[in-house]
Amino acid sequence: MAHLAEEVWQHSVSFKSIVGIGVGAGAYVLAKLALIFPDMVEGLVLLNIDPNGKGWIDWAASKITGLTSSLPDTVLPHLFSQCYQELVSNTELVQSYRQQIGNTINQANLQLFWNMYN
């Protein structure tokens, strides 16, 4: 996504540099943009880049689970929390989100976003 932002920037914006504000995934994309293209960024305000920082074992487990789970099921724990109990106790809400993610969001774009953020 940072590469896409740089391409859009070059073709449609006439600014020499930016001061960016991002929250969550937007903060992550801006941080990547600053690392890849430091001359484009004057400053950043970043909130919640990774509110659930994981160790390498958790990271590996999520990668393996991602190989065997559907994309909506992979995204759901990130939306609610890392707590299994929250997913189990809100079954109607979780099912509603699962259907929305599976039916209304372009899955190819969601996969690209998910790969960038994770």
Describe the structure.
This protein has 118 residues and is mainly α. It is built from seven helices and two strands. It has a two-stranded parallel sheet with strand order 1-2. It is elongated, with a radius of gyration of 17 Å. The two termini are 12 Å apart. The mean pLDDT is 76.
Task: Describe the structure in brief.
By secondary structure, this protein is mainly alpha-helical.
Strand content: 5-15%
Strand order of the largest sheet: 1-2
Q: pLDDT below 50 for ≥5 consecutive residues: which ranges?
A: none
Count of helical segments? 7
Distance between the amino and carboxyl termini: 12 Å
How much helicity do the residues have? 55-70%
Write out key terms for the chains shown.
single chain; 118 residues; 2 strands; mainly alpha
How is this fold's topology laid out?
Blueprint: H1 2-12, E1 18-23, H2 25-36, E2 41-47, H3 56-68, H4 71-80, H5 84-89, H6 91-104, H7 107-117
Parallel strand pairs: 1-2
Helix pairs in contact: 1-2, 4-6
